[in-house]
Amino acid sequence: MRWQAEVLCAGVTRGEVLRMDAPLSFWGGVDPASSKVVLAGHPQRGAPITGKVVVLPHLIGSSSSSAVLLELIYRKHSPLALILGQRDAILPIGVVVARQMGWRAPAVVLLPDPPFVSGDMLSIAKDGSILTTGSRNTSR
């Protein structure tokens, strides 16, 4: 299937989805040294976000989340892309700053009610089109 997302920070990538099943703030919720979700009680606690297409249907705001994302990018622990279910300026700021520094940074797109689940394989184009390319989730 194909979806059209709104581009917040353009990029081209292909990878496996890690869907956050509960709201998450990068500040206090993701360890920038290991890229693991560390928020107590979070369903994805312990899961690394490095090299994943991270789907965030709901966010918990913290202006410091952009700094955590920037640190992840600097350490080469960032996700391949972020698919946001609601408009956010904080995470894209981290991407914009990283690109100003000349660092490779993830694409960020907006797609309300993103239908993707962990294990889905997606391609994201520069224009924001998202194409499912398979699934590593064998239980579906």
Explain what you see.
The chain is α/β, with parallel strands linked by helices and 140 residues long. The chain is 15% helix and 27% strand. It is built from two helices and eight strands. The protein has helices at residues 65-74, 90-100, and strands at residues 2-4, 6-9, 13-19, 53-56, 81-84, 107-110, 120-124, 129-135. Strands 1-8-7-3-4-5-6-2 form an eight-stranded mixed sheet, covered by helices on one side. α2 links the parallel β5 (81-84) and β6. α1 runs parallel beside α2 (90-100). The model has no long low-confidence stretch (mean pLDDT 94).
Q: What distance lies between the first and last C-alpha atoms, to the nearest angstrom?
A: 16 Å
Could you tell me the number of beta strands?
A: 8
What is the string of SSEs from the N terminus onward? EEEEHEHEEE
As an assembly, this protein is single chain
Report on the biggest sheet.
8 strands, mixed
Strand order of the largest sheet: 1-8-7-3-4-5-6-2
Low-pLDDT runs: none
- Overall 3D shape: globular
What is the CA-atom radius of gyration, in angstroms?
A: 14 Å
- Average pLDDT rating: 94
Specify the helix fraction band: 10-25%
Q: Can you count the helices?
A: 2
Percentage beta strand: 25-35%
User: Which structural class should the secondary elements be placed in?
Assistant: alpha/beta
Task: Give a short overview.
It contains two helices and eight strands; from the N terminus they run ββββαβαβββ. With 140 residues, it is of the alpha/beta class. The protein has an eight-stranded mixed sheet with strand order 1-8-7-3-4-5-6-2, with helices on one face.
